[in-house]
Design brief:
single chain, alpha/beta, Glutaconate Coenzyme A-transferase, 2 domains, nine-stranded mixed sheet, six-stranded parallel sheet
């Protein structure tokens, strides 16, 4: 059968596609998937379904559409709050390990995956657009794949494609795909963040391959001008933050020295306005791969001069740090930064939280604190008070470095504790 005929046979309404979901099924709507009508059609079947597990990973689908029907739907994350005890520590790179290896008690079969794709090309191949993340990974493993076909989704290079034959039902629905409107995400006005950005600028060299994490001190760096005077930067991260595409348009970010993929800017998804996304369409500079590849520390540590820049919630005087009990996913990039030839790990944070009442640099973590990475991977730590250089230093030297960049109001107490710990 020609793909055109197959596509036509599989083209249905959202209501018809939703009938593929059966009671007891596990339905996955992957992270940042641009789907709307199929999830709503599934939610509308609440009187016909029982015990359906809904895993929602995208902000474009409000989990609340499944609320009020607890016998029909069990939603992850819950519609009201996240129960810390139910959190599964993991890395995005290991997202499918338990499922692929059928680890007893640690996996759940995926019955239905809901994804968003572009219309098929002349060969019957659809693209996941600028936002892949886990979509293809789940589509490959699900028993049934439901796809919303959106003519506004672009086409890029990389492992970002799926053939008509791999999808069970298509629903045509066009919706806006840009992540932001206007000039992009709001840039924080905090003086501490601006100061931190200037310190980060001093550690970034021409030709470095950058990886920007989330958090107020990091995710807007590309918009703050600190990379504007650099040359031939590259990028490799799960998400390409606001401003990365504009740096590419300006010829600053070229990927020229990415020894793993020369001349490429690589991510699992890109954030930008409509103009940014249009610039990516069929542009060979950009390649998109799934989280299980891009976020794998074994892979990205092979990139020379890989510079992982991440936010940190708290760090103790040994250099071990945490981003919170329910956020372990970003740990692999700092590992890669330290392991990379010529690479660096940069942790950035304002020195205090809670309106200046709590120091983010602490003598020791409280019992039960979830450590994101051990002290062995401590490298550069930046606050608005300077740069602490930890790599290759003793515990006592690390404590001195970190106290020097702590808020002045907390330094005396930290020094007292350090003197007890490391006399």
């Amino acid at each position: 059968m020609r793909w055109q005929e197959e596509y036509k046979q599989k083209l249905v309404s959202a209501e018809e596609a939703a009938k593929a979901v059966k009671s007891g099924d596990t339905v996955v709507i992957p992270y940042r998937t641009n789907t709307q009508v199929i999830p709503q059609a599934i939610a509308n079947r609440r009187n016909q379904l029982r015990g359906v597990n809904i895993i929602v990973g995208t902000y474009r689908v409000d989990p609340a559409i499944f609320a009020g029907a607890e016998e029909s739907f069990h939603v992850t994350p819950p519609t009201e709050s996240k129960i810390i005890g139910d959190f599964v520590p993991s890395l995005f790179a290991l997202s499918f390990k338990a499922l692929d290896e059928k680890r007893e008690g640690a996996y759940r079969d995926v019955d239905v995956a809901v994804v968003a794709v572009s219309p098929p090309d002349e060969n019957g191949v659809c693209c996941f657009g600028h936002s892949l993340f886990h979509q293809k990974g789940y589509a490959k493993r699900a028993k049934i794949v439901l796809a919303e076909v959106n003519r506004k989704l672009i086409r890029t290079g990389g492992d970002n494609f799926i053939h008509v034959s791999e999808i069970d039902y298509f629903v045509e629905h066009d919706t806006d795909v840009a992540e932001v409107s206007g000039k992009g995400a709001a840039i924080p006005e905090f003086d501490s963040v601006k100061t931190i950005a200037r310190y980060i600028e001093t550690l970034v060299k021409d030709g470095d391959i950058l990886s920007l994490g989330a958090g107020v001190a990091v995710e807007n760096l590309a918009q703050m001008g600190i990379f504007d005077k650099k040359n031939d930067l590259g990028y490799w991260a799960g998400g390409a933050r606001y401003g990365i595409i504009k740096l590419a348009k300006a010829g600053i970010m070229t990927g020229k020295y990415n020894n793993l993929m020369p001349g490429k800017i690589v991510a699992s998804g890109f954030y930008g306005d409509e103009e940014d996304i249009a610039y990516m369409n069929n542009n060979p500079l950009f390649e998109i791969y799934g989280y299980e590849y891009v976020n794998n520390p074994v892979i990205c540590s092979q990139i020379n001069n890989f510079v992982a820049i991440n936010s940190v919630a708290s760090i103790d005087l040994t250099g071990q740090w945490t981003v919170g009990v329910t956020n372990t996913y970003g740990a692999y990039f700092p590992v890669a930064g330290v392991m990379s030839k010529g690479g660096r790990s940069i942790l950035a944070t304002p020195s205090t939280s809670k309106a200046g009442t709590v120091s983010r640099i602490t003598a020791r973590f409280a019992a039960g604190t979830a450590v994101t990475l051990p002290a062995a991977f401590g490298d550069y730590v930046i606050t608005e008070f300077g740069i602490a250089r930890l790599f290759g230093k003793t515990l006592k030297q690390r404590a001195q470095e970190l106290i020097a960049v702590a808020h002045p109001d907390f330094r005396a107490d930290l020094k007292k504790e350090a003197d007890k710990l490391y006399p």
